[in-house]
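About this split. The held-out portion is used to measure sequence recovery: a designer receives only the structure tokens and must propose an amino acid at every position. Recovery is the fraction of positions where the proposal matches the reference. Here is one held-out target exactly as it appears in the evaluation file.
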């Protein structure tokens, strides 16, 4: 960063003064806190021009990493301009503060709409959920295929899919993102993410790639369909799986679609469309990165193009693996490389 404010230019970003942002948030009042995470807190604020913004106040770290994270986020978000990506309006950098300024999303996030909505607010209807699924996919596809260097989100979850005034999806939460050169296929990094949304290979090796995001998208899609958390200990009370992915696959096998879909929809959905989106989600959450589609393919499948063929091909491969394992490894329960494979074979209850 250049030390003198007037000399700093990065696209159309504005360098806000600390005083402006203090006044916008009533000096970072607790009553204006709208979110918090590993990297900092988010405040709702009103600028002098009357516009409402979300101001992310990054935690202060004594290590160089804090500054590097800030530089990465500013650089990255300024590069990524798409209607389904959260647009950075500006920033503030002082010796003691690092702040990012975004447009405020009036309808919260997929997570808040699914699990924190007030009684007076209607649940997201099926048409809106389909639109969110497609918008989020398009946003991620832009990060992967249209940014140079490409961008990996690394921690995509329902809380990161924000909703604008029309309930259109806007992908945010770039604090954990990583820039990639096109020659790179993956980056090895300290695992930072949210349990339940983390792809197996990222958890076990620290290797993140676009396919890590595809896995996170698939889990988010299951949350959108079911209204359930990615990991929920409460499901144990009903002898159900703690992991959402296992729970969905079990119900799908038993053809219990009505149990699987969010009860808030009260049956107002199209079964065929639900099944198709679940198929997309399961293709995205296969245990091996190579098996997962790219986001450009996911966009096409959510739009209804090529899903049937890809699903049928995957089912045939699963059947082949099962037959092969039953013939050659009859006593090995964990060898089947499908979407429910886990790092710890002891967690599996048997062949899938």
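Reference sequence for scoring:
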């Amino acid at each position: 960063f250049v030390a003198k404010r007037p000399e700093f230019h990065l696209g159309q970003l504005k360098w806000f003064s600390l005083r402006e942002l203090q006044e916008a948030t009533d000096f970072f009042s607790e009553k204006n806190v709208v979110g918090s995470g590993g990297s900092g807190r988010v405040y709702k604020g009103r600028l002098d021009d009357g516009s409402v913004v979300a101001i992310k106040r990054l935690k202060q770290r004594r290590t160089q990493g804090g500054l590097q994270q800030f530089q990465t986020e500013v650089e990255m978000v300024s590069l990524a301009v798409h209607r389904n990506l959260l647009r950075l309006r500006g920033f503030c950098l002082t010796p003691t503060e690092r702040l990012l300024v975004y447009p405020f999303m009036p309808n919260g996030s997929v997570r808040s709409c699914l699990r924190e909505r007030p009684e007076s607010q209607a649940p997201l209807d099926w048409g809106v959920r389909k639109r969110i699924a497609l918008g989020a996919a398009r946003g991620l596809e832009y990060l992967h295929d249209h940014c140079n260097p490409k961008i990996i989100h690394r921690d995509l979850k329902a809380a990161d899919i924000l909703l604008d005034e029309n309930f259109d999806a806007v992908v945010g939460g770039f604090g954990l993102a990583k820039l990639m050169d096109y020659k790179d296929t993956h980056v090895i990094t300290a695992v930072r993410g949210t349990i339940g949304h983390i792809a197996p290979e990222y958890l076990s090796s620290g290797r993140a790639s676009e396919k890590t995001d595809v896995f996170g998208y698939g889990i988010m899609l299951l949350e959108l369909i079911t209204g359930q958390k990615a990991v929920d200990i409460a499901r144990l009370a009903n002898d159900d799986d703690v992991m959402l992915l296992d729970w969905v696959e079990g119900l799908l096998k038993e053809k219990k679609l009505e149990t699987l879909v969010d009860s808030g929809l009260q049956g107002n959905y199209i079964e065929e469309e639900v099944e198709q989106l679940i198929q997309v989600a399961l293709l995205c959450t296969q245990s091996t990165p190579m098996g997962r589609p790219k986001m450009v393919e996911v966009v096409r499948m959510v739009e209804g193009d090529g899903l049937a063929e890809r699903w049928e091909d995957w089912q045939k491969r699963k059947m082949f693996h099962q037959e092969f394992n039953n013939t050659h490894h009859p006593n090995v329960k964990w060898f089947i490389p499908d979407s429910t494979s886990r790092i710890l074979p002891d967690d599996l209850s048997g062949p899938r």
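Annotator remark: Residues 333-352 have pLDDT under 50 and may be disordered.
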